Fold RidA family protein.
Amino acid sequence: MTVEATLLDLGITLPEPTAPVANYVAFVRTGNIVSISGQIPMKDGALAYTGKVGDTVSIEDASSAARICAVNIIAQLKVACQGDLNRVVRIVKLGGFVNCIDGFSQQPQVINAASDLMVAVFGEKGKHSRSAVGTNALPLNVPVEIDALVEIK
């Protein structure tokens, strides 16, 4: 089964990737590694979630935000793979950042939504190493930002 067919089965339509708004690029390819810049929960051209987890954002909503970030990573990856997601050899690493209150310790549960999606879409190739870090703020007051390293052929 192709990655595109899997996305279709999961009911996922990849968005048009968002262009960077500062002095950086959406992804960099060096050799067979693609580094994808941090993706935020943009959906249909707008922020799907804002706020701080443990205060104005629930763990469930933060998990939904993480899943949106993962979809946006896959959209950027598709561009990096010149439209062919079957070129993905391995999702190497996800770096998850959670905008949360002091004392919040459930960052891994939030970022699990992104990890689960990578495995659902890419199977064994989607299993990756990961960081799940709490922070006191993120750009545009989003609750989650996730970046990725991916090996492609």
Remarks:
- The CA atoms of residues 62 and 110 lie 6 Å apart.
- The two ends are 18 Å apart (CA to CA).
- The beta strands are 27-30, 33-39, 42-43, 46-47, 88-99, 129-135, 144-152.
